[in-house]
Design goal:
By secondary structure, the protein is an alpha/beta fold. It has two domains: 214 residues, Spore Coat Polysaccharide Biosynthesis Protein SpsA, Chain A (Alpha-Beta Complex); 86 residues. 19% of the residues lie in helices and 30% in strands.
């Protein structure tokens, strides 16, 4: 089964960091986010991938090509103008002749979905959505399910107007016959346009409950949560770093100078230098190619080249030379 990954969004809710880094390339647990997603898919046996791109597409292509995935076919489809999460499928419909898996590029999950796919195909479903129960639905697509079928859907409901505790995870199985509902060369969104249209057209929309960990990391708060959940080992996905002590992970070529205290959980990326007299942690994620100045005190923060996501879930601009002053 082909997998289509939607990776063309602007990541506006993650500004200003996405001015410089497209959302799929945000560093999480010592890798670009989309690398984790691709590796999880390939571990489940998916070998035929289509990546839908628009914003900063070349950087994403270079990152994926550098992964050198073996025995995996990757086709990049670039939108010249933004067509939305459904509209972009009109560009790849020539390749989508059989049921396919469709995944938002700004999610991560650790569950195995192969059995659900088998059930989808066995039952002859046209459209299946993976759903997850959460406490607060206001920033997600809210789903009402009865007897395994989606009977109502509201995108980002007003607080107090939720129709259930189930939300759309951004993982779908689609029959190519549904592509006829997507207009050519026009912006068309899955949640705001396609799903409501399919409900009006009485297309049966099936729901599968997604097991395991799942997150849409499209906001600063959830992006911070993902970083910290990972170093707390709440995800059943590997971290490409060495665990030197419980919940303390180091990448390659890390230099830690004298009198540095590291308080778990912490993950430190590749080619990081930490100068003397620093306190790192708890809950710190440092991406690659960073120098932490002498005397810095970091806690509850994700550190990038140009920005720090602080303990208030706000991106603070920094220069590497001023980290020690800005991080206290």
């Amino acid at each position: 089964m082909k997998v289509v990954i939607l990776a063309g969004g602007y990541g506006q809710r993650l500004l200003p960091i996405t001015n410089n880094i497209p959302k799929p390339l945000l560093p999480i647990a010592n890798r670009a986010a989309i690398e984790h997603l691709l590796l999880h898919l390939t571990r489940m046996g998916f070998t035929d991938l289509i990546i839908q791109l628009h914003y900063m597409s070349q950087a994403i292509i270079e990152t994926i090509n550098a992964m050198k995935l073996k025995n995996i076919a990757v086709d990049f489809i670039i939108e010249e103008k933004s067509l939305g999460s459904a509209g972009c499928l009109s560009l790849s419909k020539h390749s989508l002749t059989e049921p396919f898996l469709l995944i938002n590029g700004d999610i991560l999950f650790d569950g195995d979905i192969k059995e659900a796919i088998s059930q989808h195909l066995l039952n002859g479903n046209m459209f299946s959505m993976f759903v997850k129960q959460v406490e607060k639905c206001a920033s997600y697509g809210n789903v009402r399910v009865k007897d395994g079928q989606i009977i109502d859907f509201i995108e980002k409901p007003i607080s107090g107007k939720e129709i259930s505790k189930l939300v759309n995870t951004g993982i779908y199985i689609m029959d190519p016959k549904l592509l006829k509902y997507i207009p050519e060369n026009r912006y068309f969104d899955i949640s705001n346009d396609l799903i409501p249209l399919l409900l009006i057209e009485k297309v049966r929309l099936h729901a599968f409950h997604l097991d395991g960990y799942w997150i849409d990391y499209g906001t600063p708060r959830r992006f911070a949560k993902l970083n910290f959940d990972w170093i707390e080992e709440k995800l059943n996905l590997p971290i490409p770093a060495v665990q030197i002590l419980p919940r303390i992970f180091l990448g390659e070529h890390v230099i830690i100078n004298n009198n540095v205290k590291i308080v778990s959980p912490v993950i430190i990326g590749n080619d990081v230098t930490i100068e003397e007299d620093c306190v790192i942690g708890p809950y710190v994620s440092i991406s690659s190619n960073i120098r932490i100045d002498q005397g810095s005190v970091l806690h509850h923060q994700a550190i990038f080249q140009k920005y720090t996501l602080n303990n208030e879930n706000k991106f603070v601009h920094n220069s590497i030379k001023k980290l020690s002053k800005e991080m206290h």
